[in-house]
Structures are given as structure tokens and as C-alpha cells.
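Risk mitigation, structural track. In case the binding assays with zinc ion fail to produce interpretable data, a predicted complex structure has been prepared as a fallback.
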Amino acid sequence: MNKIVKTKAVVLKKINYGDTSIIVSLYTEELGRISAILKGARKSKTKPGFIIDPINFIEIVLYNKRNRDVQLISSADLISNFSNIKEDIDKLKYAYATIELIQNLTSEEEKDLRLFKGVTKILELFNTSEELPGVIFCRFFLFLIKELGYQFSLKQCAVCRREDISNEDLAFNFETGLLCSNCKKNYITTHEINMELFNFFACLRSNNKIRNNAEYLSSKGVYFMEAYLKYHINNFKGLKSLKLIG
Ligand SMILES: [Zn+2]
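Fallback model:
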């Protein structure tokens, strides 16, 4: 049965199809992640063909048919093209990393309003906030890890449960969690967590501003979360976007 669905969506990917069409991957508010085709999009400079571009926030109308892999787009309107993101290579890099995570870590047709709101909010932040794009991205990455069910605790040692450990030489084991200076002797360390990184995550969690060393810490933070997710999700191979652009 065909159902006409009107929904907001973030464009994740776009590829040419046939002579004039495009196939896109969309993260939609109503249907989760879907693939859809816009026929004749490249025939002339049609408006929908022009605005359906990666990162853009749009509203589409589509004919949704269950059991069909690719849905049919009938119209599209632009909500925001986040023009500031596209003028700043650093913002762009991390915005691409954001949609790459959504493309690779969400299941098809799994509606998730919280995640949808999270994605649109983070793109809006890249667009308007003065905060370093790397830090904004870390906030999103941490949120996503929690949404996916892989939240890690940095509150206490995962073994002896001591909490007052932020001044110690800490370590992290991807299976066990955070290890204090005593307990780490008995485990394989899969990642070092120094005090700076520990405090950085604490700031992200409590939504505080990162005052010092933000650039360095956000790259360490991304590296840590990437490695952590690679360990837990077999088919996650890491982020390409961050390597492609500077
Ligand atoms: Zn311990």
C-alpha cells in the first residue's frame, strides 16, 4: 500500500542514478533512515534536485511503500542549508563526520525522535555556535554512544568502584571500563586516560565549556570514542570524513 508521508529530513548522502535521477540517503523524523529516489532531478535545475544535498535540512513529501527499498520523493522544501557550515572547512569536516555516524550506525527505517532532534540540534550548533567544531562534535559523539546503548562511565573505577580518582594515572579497558591506578595493573590497558581527558569528558557530560586546550582534547576525545565504538561495533570502521578533509 502506498502512503503519502510528509517529514523533515537531514540529507546524508546523494548519488547520481541513471541519466537524470538521484538516489539519496535521508535521516527522517517520521521514518528514520531511508533511501529515496528523486526522478529527473538532474534534468533541469529543478528546485528539489538542487536543495537535496548532503547536510541540508529539508522537508519532503514521499510515497512510502513498505517492502520497497527505495522510496519515491514527490517534493522537497529547504528548511536550512546551514550556510555558515559550508563556508568553514573545519565546521564542514565535523558536520560530515556527524552525518557519516548517522549513516553508518543507525538501522534502516528505525524512527528515533531523540536522535533526530540531536542531529538537527548539532548541525544548528555547527552553524551558529562560536564553540570549536571539534568540541561540538565530541558532545554529539558522546550523546550518540549513549543513544546506541554503549554509554561508558567515567565516574568511578569499574573494578573497585572508588570515585575519587581523577588525580590518578587512569586507564581504560574497552571491555571493563575505567580503571584506577591500582586496578589497572591487573588488566590490559586499551587506552590511556590522563587527567586532562578525564576532565574533558566530565565537562562534556555536564555540558560545561571547555576552557583550555580544546582543540587537542577534542581530537583525543574523538580518537578515544572512535576506538571504543570500533571495539564494540564490528562493522564500524571509523570515521572517513575526518581523514578526507585535512
Ligand atoms: Zn580500582
